[in-house]
Each structure stands twice: as C-alpha cells, then as structure tokens.
C-alpha cells in the first residue's frame, strides 16, 4: 500500500530555504536593475498605467453604449418627438435611465429644433440646444440604415452661456421607428443625448494618480487639471479621424524613491543568488520527473472534458493532491452531465409553455371577436329595424355581448394584478347566501336553455355572514358555475355551501363529460384548458380556474377537484373567512336607484361628443341640470361660474387633462365632490386618482347602475 504522501509537504521540506533565497535574489536583481534604469521604469510605468486607464475608459464607455443602444428603438422615446401624449412615460423612462445607470448624469431628447423635447434632470431643459439641434438635424437628414451612436464633446460655455474652460462628454443615440419598407427600414424622429458621468471612472482609478481628460484646450467637467509640465503622460483616447471627436487622457504620478541602502543590499545578495539559482534549478529538474507523468495524465483527462466527453478517469497517482484533483474532476464531469440533462428537460418545459401562450393568444383573439361581432351585428341590424320588439331583443343581445367582452377584459386585468402581487382583498360584511343567489340568477337562463337543473343548497350553512371580499367571492362562484353549466349537456349542476367555524366550503357538482387524468394535472395552469378540442367547442380563455385557484389562496384557502369521464366533476373551494354578525337593517337608500337630483347642478368635463351624449342620456332621468365642458380649460371656467354640486372629470382631455383640473380645484375647494370618468382601469389607476383628490371613480364603458351608485353615495 502506497504511503499517503503530500507533494506540497515534500516541496516545503526540501526546497523552502532554497526557494526563499531564490526569491530574495530575484527581488535584489530586479531592484538593482530598477535603480540603474529608474527614469526609464518610471516612464514605462506611467505609460502602462495610462494605456490601462485608456482601455478601461473605452471599455466602460463601450459597455454603456451596449447598455443604452436598445433605447434607439424604444417605442415611448422614439414616439415622443411627434406625440407629446407620451411625455409622462418618457420622463419616467429618462428618470429611471439616469438614476439606475452609473455613467449617465443626465438625459434629454432633441428633435432638431432649438428646444429640448424632454429631459432629466429638468435643468437640461434650460440648456442652449443649438449645438445639439445641429447634430440632431444632421442625423435626421442622413437617415442611416444602421445604428451609429456618436460621441460629442460640447463646451460648457456654449451650453450654459457663461465663461468656462470646461466641457461635457455626450453620447448621441438616434431615436427611430421601425418601418415595413425595405428601402427605408427606419424613420428617425430625434436624438437622445446622454451626458457621460466621469465620476465612476475617476473614483475607481483615483489611486493611480491625478487624471484629467481634455479636448483641445478644454478640460472635461468632473476632472481637475494640473499645472505641472514634467512627469505628465498624455495620450489620445479618441481622434477626429477615427471617432470624429478629440479626447485625450493626461496622467501624473509620483515616482517611487529607491534608497542607497537597498542598492547595497542588492549587490551583496546578487552573488549568493546566482549560486543558489544553479542548485535550485538542478533539484527542480529531478523533482519534475516525478510530477510530469501524472500531470500529463490529468492534462489528457482535462482535454477529454473540454471536448465534451464527460467520463471518469481511473489513474493511480503517488501524491494525495493529484488524487484529490482527479476525484474533483470526475465529480465535475458527473455534475455537468446531470446539468446538461436537466437543461434539456427545462428546454422542453419552456417550449411547452411557449406553445401554451400561443394557444392562449389564438383563443383570446377568438373570444374577443365573438362579442365584438355580436355588438357590431346588433348595431347594423338596428339601423334597418323599425319594429320596437325586435329592436328591444337586439339591444338585449348587444348588452350581453358587451358584458361578455367586459368580463374577458376584467379576467385579464385581474390575472395581471394577481401575477404582479398587486390584487388587494377587501374585508367587509358579506352575506354568502345572498351572493350565491345573485350568481345563480346570472346562469338561470343559460341552464334553462340547455334543459339542465341549477340547484343551490345552503341548508348546512350555519353562519352566512362573513368578513371578506364580496366581489372576489362572486368571481370564484361565477367561474365555477359558468364552467359547470358550459360543460354539462344534460342532468344538473349543484352548488352546496357548508361551514365549520371560520372555514367555508363551496362544492360545485356537475353531471357533465368529466375530465381525464391527464387533463387534471394541468387544469389549473394559466392559458390552458383540458384539451384543444374543448377550446374549439366551448370557447374560453383558460384563465378562469387559474384565477379561482389564486383567489382562493389569497383567502388562505385551496381548490381541489375530483372527476370521472362520462360521470361528471366536483370542484371544492375551502376558504378561511371570519364569522361576523348580521348588519343592522337600517333604512338605506337603494344605491342603484335613479338619483333625485332636481335643481342640482352637475358639471361634466368630456371632449368626446359620443360620450357626452351617452352621459347626458344617463343623467336625464335624474332631472339634474347638466352642463358640459369641451376641454380642461373650459371646465375650470365653468366650475368657477357654476359652482356645481358634483363635478365629473374625464382624465384625458385637450389643453388641460383631468389630473390638472383636479389639482386646481382642490387648491381652492376641498368639499365639491370630484368624480373621475376614465378608461384607465389598470392596476392601481383608480386608487391613484382617489389619492390625487378625486372622491370617486367611474370606469369606461360606463355602467349606468354603477354611475347611479356613485351619485347616490355622494348625495347620501
């Protein structure tokens, strides 16, 4: 059995002394040489440092260019010069760019005019833009086919109109929109100028000496020049010939001083070192023979791994370190092989996910077009109908199609909120029996048309009043009952409500076609239904059950399902909702009743004529006096003149938008009810409007019942 010998220990024991002396000799010889060539070495050191700084600076600038190059085709920034509606989003994008990018000090957009389109920080808006507009016009006139990001050195004096010997470095990124033409693939709309912040570069290299950047006779802002003329290294970073901009680096370092004592010590050690080097070389040659063969074996093993042959080596080495290295390489080969297998599996999963998303988009296109076709068809038919009964039926069909379309959009919005973790659950008194009865009424007609029974059992519900979110509870019931009715051709759909303490159980049982074992495994996946034939036959987006599962989890609950093909399915939702007392039966106004607004003055700020007519028709039954403003400025004038009892404000209007109108009103008046009328119903929009000063919000398309509910809430 071979001894467990260590190559490291053997080398330490036998050559530590000689190797130490060799190092001393080497250092002494180098020191002697440095003393003889002190000036030359100092100059070479400065040159190397300067070249390193230039390479580092170019690398950082190139990395910045690579990082910001995609902004050239950013939709918001490239559209802003021609469409100022994107200003708010562009400011946010520029703010994020400046705040989150180390080497960007400021950013602004120029479209060739003498004014800045938008910029951040806002001090850039006061700069003289003649230099930048000249470059922007040059870029716009060239209409380059390929992206080219220019560098500009601009004197501070020409920007800020005050005497200065400093300059700023900018990157000019053309903003362009992609076109379908082969001859002219892009349309250039402006130029995004980024002021390069030199502080990260200077801060990371401050120990290397005094650094400053110059362009002709100007010093770049953020660097401090020196009056010294000797010991200063100068070298160009960019040239006019190659980069169309002149930029130089200047470096000054303090030289190290070598003492005479070091020189004498070097001379004494040199002679001894020469002899030791000879002895050490002879010994290392003998030792190398014992290491060469195993090291070559390891090298061959590494070459095999490099070529992708992840196999284990089985050599018997003398030294422990080499055996450990071989074991480590074998373990790495095994891990790499397992990781490759895992990556291939993940690739299959990713491809499956992409197919599911594509299938979802195709389904969504079909689901959106179906109600749109119903709405469009109803209006075409009503145009030619004279029979009141037929028209009433067509209107009902149009309302159904509209509600279906809104339901689809709401599902998408809710799912996006859940995915982003932004869905907030309310906590209020909920009558579970009343909610399930309301949801049942939505599907009674559909179930009757299919000749199936829709049965509700609440006998085992001991505590119907709970603290929860009535809207989300309805959403769970609506999705489960809708699916059950949709997939049941004959028989019945039964809903059973049970409870035990805080736990509320909802069971939806149908006698439909049932679900296969394979389909059950992916039933709650987003964008998916049981199978593609189901999607073609029954429609749907594949989001319903995914939303049910995630809403249940937000209520500390869960969803389970059991099903047999040809017999039916049973979905069980278990929620945790606190029990509460029944609300007092106070004399409350029906919030969805027509408000009594006789002799009340209402002001509507709305620029769309069709929306004006629809709103007027909805308000007419209230007998209120409605005054309409065509834009934000007229709305402010009419507000001061009329002093309305309720002020309805559209968010997006010409001249002055709804947010500015709200701000001006709230500066003078904290009591007049302000109601936002908006189509912006994405996550957080309605809450933001209320935080800005609106008392309530009405989403477009306007639901008349919701409008009356908001008015009654304000009046009461």
Automatic annotation (TrEMBL):
Keyword Transferase assigned: yes
Response regulatory domain sequence ranges: 601-715
Matches recorded under InterPro entries: CheY-like_superfamily (IPR011006), HATPase_C_sf (IPR036890), HATPase_dom (IPR003594), His_kinase_dom (IPR005467), HisK_dim/P_dom (IPR003661), HisK_dim/P_sf (IPR036097), Sig_transdc_His_kin-like_C (IPR004358), Sig_transdc_resp-reg_receiver (IPR001789)
One Pfam family hit: Response_reg
PROSITE patterns, per the entry: HIS_KIN (PS50109), RESPONSE_REGULATORY (PS50110)
Stretches of the chain forming a coiled coil according to its record: 326-353
4-aspartylphosphate modified-residue sites: 650
Annotated GO MF terms: ATP binding; histidine phosphotransfer kinase activity; phosphorelay sensor kinase activity
Domain Histidine kinase: 363-579
Keyword field: ATP-binding, Coiled coil, Kinase, Membrane, Nucleotide-binding, Phosphoprotein, Transferase, Transmembrane, Transmembrane helix, Two-component regulatory system
Main EC class the enzyme belongs to: transferase
EC numbers: 2.7.13.3
Bilayer-crossing regions: 15-35, 265-284
Catalysed reactions, as listed in the record: ATP + protein L-histidine = ADP + protein N-phospho-L-histidine
Annotated Gene Ontology cellular component terms: plasma membrane
PANTHER family hit by this protein: OSMOSENSING HISTIDINE PROTEIN KINASE SLN1, TWO-COMPONENT HISTIDINE PROTEIN KINASE
Name under which the protein is recorded: histidine kinase
The organism's taxonomic lineage, starting at the top: Bacteria, Pseudomonadati, Pseudomonadota, Gammaproteobacteria, Alteromonadales
